[in-house]
Design brief:
Shape of chain B: globular
Radius of gyration of chain A: 20 Å
CATH superfamily of chain B: Thiamin diphosphate (ThDP)-binding fold, Pyr/PP domains
Number of strands of chain A: 14
Structural class of chain A: alpha/beta
Largest interface: A-C, 52 and 52 residues
Strand order of the largest sheet of chain A: 3-2-4-5-7-6-12
Strand order of the largest sheet of chain B: 2-1-3-4-8-7
Strand content of chain A: 15-25%
Radius of gyration of chain B: 19 Å
Number of strands of chain B: 8
CATH class of chain B: Alpha Beta
Bound molecules: thiamine diphosphate, magnesium ion
Number of helices of chain A: 14
Oligomer: heterotetramer
CATH topology of the largest domain in chain A: Rossmann fold
Distance between the termini of chain B: 58 Å
């Protein structure tokens, strides 16, 4: 049972929390700057209006709309960070990282190492993804496992407003590059959380145990954590006690928390929206299999996107990724 | 590009109008169908940009190929995409051209040379070059067209493609539909040099800025570019000036468009202008055009009905078309 | 004991086999065409001279040098394939796929699916990688797990001349896009293999059991398969019987062969040069853990690159990736 | 760019020569050291291109930044990279500027503004813009320079960076060192338009093709570009014509370079030409220059000795500098 969700708290959205984190970071530290397509107020403050008001409040120099040039965007963020700034670059959708992978992987992630620690790249790349709007094959991919495989860059994603606030602030504070994944379908859902105050931080690398349990461990993140929370609640009705872990930081992931829970329950389900094969769940399952050899009651189970591009048509789109029902079925199966 | 050897005669203008009327009607229907809740889709209206693809459709042959973008249904209809598989795809049905897997951003119809529709800004250009290379190898005089927006002209892929087309003398026609906005950002704010066509010179190819809403100017520029390409003289960059009447996509708050600019553009709506002119010039009568338009509406009625009556795909379909051989269940 | 290696056969190199496969494919099928930087004879036939002679033999139209424009290169290959050609595009080094990921992932891999099967993209992307020459952080990455995670594209790599020939021919024949990974340090080593004749094919998706054994299964590919073969021979001297599997096709990998061997030995080691974390070994380990739960004698072990960019300095570069000694140590450990 | 208000006087020319002599000597030593087997490294000789970075080094301040490429040791020496940490890095030692982790393709030395050396063609340009943005925010008049080759001008990243620099009026100077070859491919074969500088116009920024081997012309063009940037007038693209005397990298079979072209270029070697001119113009005597050169050799001797006597890094070093906090063992 999630304590945070049951109390009567003011209603906030993830979008609101991200917007406030952005605003607070810019207000507190003049070194924080941001750029991206349509980001500034003359352009309406971004397509989801997350950055609305920022350029008016903090000036056109620090909050800049850009041409459609993702390599130039990430490159400019890297360069400014080398001169002591803390840039937040928006790559509108995660699929568009494919046009600037060189900047992210060969440069942002590697410059600290290749310079022997003489330079570092404290940038944040905010990017949105996820299905649910019928936008098809090129707008919905979750590509976090590519970045998790890349030494030198961190990846996080939130499923609650508090975590969204705390992770974004920590990502901006962090001395190394961080990819901050957002999910359009979860932006607007009002959630019973307090809007965090400006000192709130969620440490990178630390998972949240969103519900304690003893029978089955469910490891998830981003939108799938919401689905998993619903499934866990339903499982409780069936008498199955689920320990629900939201990784929050996908890379580096919190081995200690996951392994401790897996040791306790002996049954683990990992869920992500990214294609299952070679997704982040593979690494987690491999590590659990190695560390807890002979201690598990059931094989580690993984749920993920089907091995196909994201389809357009609604029934196909729904079939692509796991949902609460599929997660519940997997939990029941594991617990049996 | 001064000599206007390519002149649109009245037959051409009438054909351009027929296409433009179809495009306009289809866009209006699409917005209506979304509003009514009959079909839920991500939709990028091209209303106001109809003349450009109507001209292209008039000049191009079926074996000429096109690579277009999310805002590309006008390009595809101009090129001859049939309405039933189009609407069934928009509706996500298994009878859609892409079996419901592609959707409005990835429409494809090879029989009419509609090879790629991409949602990644600028990506149409490099692929069009490959189709041109194939034409060279086939010793065919067919051409390939890529369309993209003013915003796309600032992305790397377009630059690389234009340079390659120039050095390989490919029969690629780069059609930039400059509607003065990229999502919410104005052309002036994002474009060094304030002109796309002028970049062509840097690649050693002709670049022409043309009023894309003027059927005669557009015809003359496009037909010349196609003739050059067919003759093996290489690529051309056309910057076709136009305007989109609505927001970036359906539902977009378009308050960033200055109201006066929008009003002036709608006032100058190129489709009724062409219509009026055809009547004034006695190319067609009001009745003839009305009949054409009624026929278009009937065809669209039929296609929408067909789409909505068609079956949805099955989840199992996800195992197919990933590779030639299916993915194991 | 590898039968193929012990017989006295003519000496051929992987480079020679690739060059012959290329030549034979162009000679047999006029639809096969190729492009890449420095590829044609006026440019010397490529930096490793693999394509030397091709433009002279098959014409400048079919064998083309390009500007340095990887997006344009892959895009041209895709476009030509849509018109019925079978293009082989060379992306000189695998790290340079980072500048054309959009073309590879959003287009080559997805067009068949997004078009509902109306089009397909029978291209091959040949690309080279691997450490050993001190070329540092941006020239040596093995990125196969990114592509393995991408539905719609296949990946293969050879460790013998016969497989290099057979895989490249199969990749060119294949109706879908294939990434063919080459490894500079293994190009030139003379190996005791016959040069395959032009009918030779290695089916995609089928691993090779390069040595049969009963104690430990070693799964590997590319250069690491060579190291693993050496380790397996040494292990035999110590009385450990190693079953040595070269995946050859990394995606989709040959589950049946790997699982059958793992079932037999109960002890599995997976080795790749790519960074260990979130590498291809994670998926393989996860699947083995799931399929053979309770049937293994030891936890699946993985060896891979350290979690860092590839370093320049020789002692660091040597420490980055596994070698025969590290593989032997892991085998011994597993067998104990 | 017609008014030559920036004229290299004799003091400037002497300084340019001092730098060029260092660059030339260092390249010669590098090739010798590789041949002798003392250091094994991937090495891209810049011999023949010394004047460009010597001019840049003369004009730039320590707080101006530079992003350069694999063929960039000349750029870095011109900017003031000290010899000991340079050579120790080339030798892969822990005393190298990058502790042996970067190597010749990723040399970095922030105290002299040498911020990024990249091995990915074209990638220097987008990053330089970020350094320029920071200068704007700091209200500093410092500039940033990115260098790249003629081949790199055809890659997307360079296009995107030039456009952004133009619309943001960034103090970025794009220095294309056109040595007429990209690996084995000639400039003519890969470059639509046969001219890099002319592409600047398409971005709305000045573009100048200059003889990069002529110290006065190079000085005049570069100093003017820097002055514009410092004054807030935005970026400039300079195409500096030059030639590399050897293959793409050390060991490359350079038979693709037409022998006559190579011989003519070597005959016109800009470093001895400048030397002779300084003596003829009585800016310096033979003895003075010889003393300078001897001093350079001694400094290089010292640096190579230092490098070879330095310890190698330890395997455990791989856990450091991936992130600020170390990777667990
Ligand atoms: C690489 C990439 N970056 C960003 C986007 C998001 N996006 C979609 S359309 C668009 C604007 C494109 O403007 P323009 O090229 O002028 O075409 P228009 O929409 O006006 O027809 C943007 C930024 C994208 N699809 N791809
Ligand atoms: C994106 C990318 N593609 C290809 C290469 C391989 N490559 C390295 S240097 C080079 C030639 C570059 O030529 P140019 O830009 O003229 O610079 P130069 O070497 O002549 O100084 C190539 C193709 C690379 N490093 N990066
Ligand atoms: Mg536009
Ligand atoms: Mg060059």
């Amino acid at each position: 049972m999630s304590a945070t969700e049951k109390q009567a708290k003011p209603t906030v959205t993830i979008l609101g929390a991200i917007a406030k984190a952005y605003h607070d970071a810019l207000a507190e530290d003049p070194k924080v700057i941001t750029l991206g397509e349509d980001l500034a107020d003359p352009e309406g403050g971004g397509i989801a209006k997350i950055t609305k008001g920022l350029s008016t409040a903090f000036g056109d120099d620090r909050v800049r709309s850009t041409p459609i040039s993702e390599q130039a965007i990430v490159g400019a963020a890297i360069g400014a960070s080398l001169a002591g700034y803390k840039p937040v670059a928006e790559i509108m959708l995660m699929n568009f990282t494919t046009v600037c992978m060189d900047m992210i992987v060969n440069h942002a992630a590697k410059l600290r190492f290749m310079s022997g620690g003489q330079t570092n790249v404290p940038i944040v790349i905010r990017t949105m993804t996820g299905l649910g709007f019928g936008s098809g094959g090129q707008h919905c991919d979750y590509l976090e496992s590519w970045f998790a495989h890349t030494a030198g860059i961190k990846v996080c994603a939130a499923s609650t407003p508090e975590d969204a606030y705390g992770l974004l602030r920590s990502a901006i504070d962090d001395p190394d590059p961080v990819i901050f994944i957002e999910n359009l379908p979860t932006y607007f859902a009002p959630m019973s959380f307090e809007m965090p105050d400006s000192s709130h931080r969620v440490p990178l690398g630390k998972a949240a145990i969103q519900r304690e349990g003893t029978d089955v461990t469910v490891v998830s993140y981003a939108r799938m954590a919401n689905e998993a929370r619903q499934a866990a609640a339903k499982a409780a009705d069936q008498g199955i006690s689920v320990e629900m872990i939201d990784l929050r930081t996908i890379a580096p992931w919190d081995r200690e928390t996951v392994l401790a829970s897996a040791r306790k329950t002996g049954r683990v389900l990992i869920v992500h929206e990214a294609v299952k094969q070679h997704g982040v769940g593979a690494e987690i399952a491999a590590v659990i299999g190695e560390e807890l050899f002979g201690q598990l009651k059931k094989p580690v189970k993984r749920l993920g996107g089907t091995f196909s591009p994201v389809p357009y048509s609604r029934p196909l789109e729904s079939a692509f990724a796991p949902d609460a029902a599929a997660i519940l079925a997997a939990i029941t199966d594991l617990a049996s | 590009m001064a000599d206007k050897q390519f002149v649109a005669d009245s037959a051409v203008l009438l054909d351009i109008y027929k296409k433009a009327a179809l495009l306009k009607a289809n866009d209006e229907r699409a917005r209506k169908v979304i509003l009514s809740g009959q079909i839920a889709m991500v939709y990028y209206s091209y209303r106001g940009q109809e003349i450009i693809p109507s001209v292209m459709g008039n000049v191009l042959r079926d074996d000429d190929t096109i690579c277009t973008i999310y805002r590309g249904i006008h390009d595809m209809l101009g090129k001859g995409f049939p309405l039933r598989p189009l609407w069934a795809e928009l509706a996500g049905r298994s009878t859609g051209s892409c079996k419901g897997k592609g959707g409005p951003m990835h429409l494809t119809y090879p029989p009419k040379g509609i090879m790629v529709t991409t949602g990644i800004v600028g990506s149409s250009a490099p692929i069009a070059n490959g189709l041109s290379w194939a034409a060279q190898l086939d010793k065919s005089d067919r051409v390939s067209v890529c369309t993209f927006g003013d915003g796309a002209s600032n992305i790397g892929a377009v630059h690389e493609a234009m340079n390659l087309a120039s050095v390989w003398k490919l029969p690629t026609i780069f059609v930039c539909q400059n509607n003065l906005f990229a999502e919410h950002t104005t052309f002036e704010k994002m474009t060094g040099g304030q002109n796309v066509a002028s970049r062509a010179e840097g690649y050693g190819m002709p670049g022409v800025r043309v009023d894309g809403n003027d059927p005669e100017a557009m015809y003359s520029a496009f037909a010349e570019a196609v003739a050059r390409a067919r003759a093996g003289e290489g690529p051309t960059l056309l910057e076709c000036m136009t305007f989109r009447f609505f927001g970036h996509n359906f539902g977009d708050d378009d308050s960033y468009i200055p109201p006066a600019q929008k009003a002036a553009a709608m006032e100058a709506d190129p489709v009724p202008h062409l219509r009026a002119r055809l009547i004034a010039d006695r190319v067609a009568t009001e009745e003839e055009l009305a009949a054409i338009e009624a026929d278009i509406e009937a065809q669209i009625d039929d296609a929408v009905e067909f789409a909505l009556a068609s079956p949805w795909p099955e989840p199992d379909d996800l195992r197919f078309d990933v590779f030639e051989t299916e993915i194991a269940a």
